[in-house]
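The records we work with from here on pair a chain with its fold. Here is one such record, which you should read through line by line:
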Amino acid sequence: MAYQVLARKYRPQRFADVAGQEHVTRTLLNALSQNRVAHGYIFSGHRGIGKTTIARIVAMAVNCRTEMGSAARPTPEPCGGCESCTEIRQGNAVDVIEIDAATNRGIDEIRELRDSARYSPSRDRFKIYILDEAHQITEAAFNALLKTLEEPPAHVIFMMATTEPENIPQTIRSRCQHFSFHAVKFDDILAQLKMIAGREQVEAEDAALALLAEAGDGSMRDALSIMDQAIASAPVEDDRPVLSAAQIRELMGSVPNTVFEHLLESVAAGQSAPLMEQINTLLNAGHSPLSLARQLVRYLRNALMSKLGGEQTELLQISSDERARAARTALLFSEEELTRNLQIVLRTFDDLNYRQEQRFHLELGLLKLIHAQRLLPVEELLSSLAAGGAGSISSPRATPSATRTHAPRIAPAAPAVSPFAVPIAGPSAASPKPVPAAVLDSPPEAAIAAAIETPLVPSPITDGFAAPIESTAPQAPESGSSPSSVADCDSLRAAVVAALTAAGHASAGQLLGTANFVLNGSSLRIEVPGVGKKMLAITVNPAAEKIIRQELQQLGAPARIMVVPGEGAAAAGAAAAPPPAGSVHEAALSHPLVQRAREIFHAEVRSVVDLHQR
């Protein structure tokens, strides 16, 4: 007798033998026991998971000649011994017609099927049509079958198996019972492989069977096909084939996941040279860059799932050893880092499919993983700004490995000028202010803080941010020489407060009355104590800011003016000044609730905002 492959030799002949499809077999057994068999079924799902097999078992069950409930057939399962069951199992039953819809997909073939369905079965109880790859049938052919499916003869049952149920017209699906098959779980495939290895007298390591089950990727037929090939290539000891993990990896052209664990350890440590040396060793051994990228994608996915659900999560369909390895790798990275790494490797894998120099692109993708570890997340930057300004920006996050290093910062010889920066106003905007040497020599954290302290403005060309604003007011006349000769800080504060109050911005005037005006060469820094950025932006709105700049320009103040939140007490002499009569500040201070709160908490009212004006 000719050799029969494992996938056919161990094809299930009973519902109980089907692995991983309990939701389907349970429903069909109940339908058989209650005599509620439908006239049309659609079985959809992944390849090699039992769709056509279950269709044949249903055909045997409904045409079984042994009476249900008898000693030979106590359950709705087919007896497997009668003439009908034997013929269906061997594929030569007259009344069970299995059609390959991929080749018999036209309207003429379906019309012939429809005409033959009108005749009664030759010998069995039902005439059964099994349409494999039913999604290949043309739309016109489906329309020819539509009326027969809607009102079929009592002796006809249609069963359609497909991997793409969405390509079957809705008019057909609405006339059939649809069963969606699941991918077979790793444990179910592994148990089946162990059973078959025992029956076939094959010595197999647990790691080898686990590799075969994982290579099946949810398909029992794929796992059995690879096992068949592995047995044929395995060495024989004492007339018994011996399967080892190393032999199966060599057969499939894969590398052990220990390699990828070491690769990601180098990524976590920021070690580019060892990473490139390991990749060079793998490529020189003959491994394909595309295959390595595919395996790295799967390994990173397993590490991410382990990070999300723990080592024993159902999201991992791998052996216990591989679960532990994925968990160890997950400890090296955060969830965000694993997600970013997986995205980088997926993009690299896509690039390898249509690139000439696959090795170069693989090496570039792995170097991107290391470079991405040195980035400061935008979330940390934004949260630091919202918490308290530039001074509170935290340093880059601690790396999982103590050996991770950062590239040294090299100070440029001269400040680079962006070609996209547009002058905002005044001649000073055309010449950017050079970066102080102290900032260039400082650590990256201090340099970031210094850069963020300078306000940025949108650029109409780049739709992003251009060079820092030097001034939003016209340049002061050169005849005024130093601003301190025109007015000191107290007179500047008093003039600004008076101008704001006269223009109807009493709240902004009261707020700036407590501010510290700091003259520093060609800049004026207005520090408002005890107020946050959001409240400062609400009170000193663009209209109030325009009045401030106009007033200071008339007094010959510096061209560069910044209004920022400050710290410490208010300016001397300004805190004791009473609020203007009839102002919102005066009304708030005279309110009984405010006075009581000040007594209880020993509080000081620094600013009052009139929200009715917003």
Remarks:
- The first helix runs from residue 6 to 9.
- Residues 389-487, 569-576 have pLDDT under 50 and may be disordered.
- Residues 307 and 330 are 5 Å apart (CA to CA).
